[in-house]
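Data deposition worksheet. Section B asks for the primary sequence of the deposited chain exactly as it was used as input, without tags or linkers unless they were present during the calculation. Section C holds the resulting structure in token form. Section D is free text for depositor observations; keep each observation to a single sentence. Incomplete worksheets are returned to the depositor.
Section A, Depositor: J.P.
Section B:
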Amino acid sequence: MKNTLLAAAVAVALVTTAYQSPAADSVAEQLEIVTSAMNSLPDIIFYKDMDGVYRGGNKAWAALVGRPFAELVGKTDTEIFPAELATAYRADDQKTLDSGKLRQFQEWLVYPDGRKVYADTLKLPWVGEDGKVLGVVGVCRVVAAPAGEKPALGQ
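Section C:
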């Protein structure tokens, strides 16, 4: 859990400082720096606005979804995932937004090739510099499944 919290803190710091990097001269350069840093992490990282539209993520997220990164930004869960999964993800995002706090849970994730992995997932409100909630940030770290735990059918 300690490593997952560290990854979440790094992800949140990267997302919230996207427009503050002194090493970049332009917004495009700053975004490139943040994206490069997130792509250096093996954890799945994504962030969505209040309407559930993905605004960014990393290569591990694109690999999980099985689409090029450029095809994911600007899409919603319903445009990316099967209906049942999209509905569950959106409901979970809403729980996070309603609580206003970091939520941690474990879940099975399925890659396009059928590979199933058990992940420790953190979701938390994405908060802007002005304190306004902008959406949801998620970090998923692949962990070993508890003994005897198997993915349910359909997962």
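Section D:
The domain at 2-143 is CATH 3.30.450.20 (Beta-Lactamase).
The chain has one domain: 2-143.
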